[in-house]
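Troubleshooting: if your tokenizer reports a length mismatch, compare against these two reference records.
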Amino acid sequence: MDTPKLFSLEGRTALVTGGSRGIGRMIVEGLLGAGCAKVYISARKADQLAEASEALGDKVVAIQGDVSTVDGCRALAKELSEREDKLDILVNNAGAAWGAPFEEFPEEGWDKAMDVNVKGPFYLTQALYGLLKAAGSADQPAKVINIGSIDGRKLNPWETYSYHASKAAILHLTKRMAARLIRDNIVVTAIAPGAFQSDMNKAARDHGDAVAKNIPSKRIGSAEDMAGAAVFLASRAGDYVVGSTLTVDGGIVDAGLPGNSIDAG
């Protein structure tokens, strides 16, 4: 068995939404390290895209885009289709959160999280369906990886109603998409991250040592932890994992003790 080849992504093309920072950037670094020939990254903010593409090297191509609307998803797919005739890997990572008391929770906060976290992954995958289908074969299926959260599997202590709902929804949507797209040699899976440093997870970013105390592994996640999970699912090693969610959280959900509360999602 050629184990290095099992995890190799040599020659493949990927798109990572929200790939300029946080978990998305960790995944981009992992895909590049595993041999991707080209990784497209998208985000709304041009300055962050420019910084990331410059730092990550000439295999990274930035495309500004907004996946919170159907038109935005279609525009991103159109621009990519003008550059590529197939897409091997799509990582739906772009995310949004909102927190407010129950009595005051605004419609804006509901729509923002649901649009970016649920509608975006569905309609971007739909818009890129032709490129994914062109890349996929029985021997090497195309891959779609949806980035959820452990907050889709458990509660955190905060009043993040739409975020919780959206992250539960994307994990179940992953199963439904997987059931349909596997017939086209497109494998759909999800990752549910726990505590990783990012602008969205300020607790892990700014108070990592304190957060780590309530994690069974006694540390927050590293870039290697996230990159390893993504490479596994994107490579031949993950071809037989279909519709599943890989929880990457140091044991919070499945090995945590009752009563421990943590802002990890």
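Reference record two:
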Amino acid sequence: MKQFSVTWDVTKEQEGMLLRNFLTEEHNISRRLLTDIKFHGGKIEVNGQHVTVRYELRAGDHVTITFPKEERSMAMQPYALSLEVVFEDEHILVVNKPAGLATIPSRKEPNISLAQGVLAYYDLHQIPATIHIVTRLDRDTSGLVLVAKHRYAHSLLSKQQIAKQIERYYVAIVEGLLHRRKGTITLPIARKASSIIERTVDILGQEAITHFETMGQSENHTLVKIKLETGRTHQIRVHFSAIGHSLAGDKLYGGSIEHISRQALHCTTLSFQHPFTKETITLTSKFPRDMCSMIERMEFFR
């Protein structure tokens, strides 16, 4: 698999810095990744010459880091899928995941997942990359998924995620009529003791914060726009169930499948800072067909 490299020019303000500090402080390369670069086939060069991280930089120097080859896990084999690519460059891929497709393989479905579809896409387009999923969605949640094409991009995007700088907006159809136009649900979430899948509100759980705004209502349902401040497993589904408004179709958390056969939840907007260009990337996805059909049948109004 081809090795990825990146080059930076040293500015006057950075003159005199040790190369180690330039890489860790200016470009967020972790010490663990630096160690891998040094001992597992990567390269650290200044002006085309191998140097140590103790090298003292001068203005105008060209610093090039070549990252170690990434190996694919034999446990995850490519599986050809029809992927809807929303954004792509040499560092990042964003795809629109359909409902019914796991983001990564599971014991229940070890051979078909979005991750394996991405690997097949890489092979088809001769992209020398392995899988680095940044944002995940539940199997039956549709919408935008962010994927990094190499380990360094994954590291930078993960730091954004921890700092809550990656914004994801969802649209859901919940049962019943919400009487607040805007609100925030702040309830801790933990794994349910009797299940390996189900989550529940638990005072001993992890902090979970969900912001919402109503977009429209029908006789018995509310269309809701949602922004997550935290990203706990099943967070939206657990929170709305806990306040008495389960997602339509979400039978795991008390929703009815009368009008839709899966939880009516779609990740419609994804916004993040590109880790290399520093540009703010904002991407959107249209509602999937099953949610559109339900909205049309229910005649939602504002």
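Descriptive notes for reference record two:
- The domain at 168-267+293-298 is CATH 3.30.2350.10 (Pseudouridine synthase).
- The longest helix spans residues 151-162.
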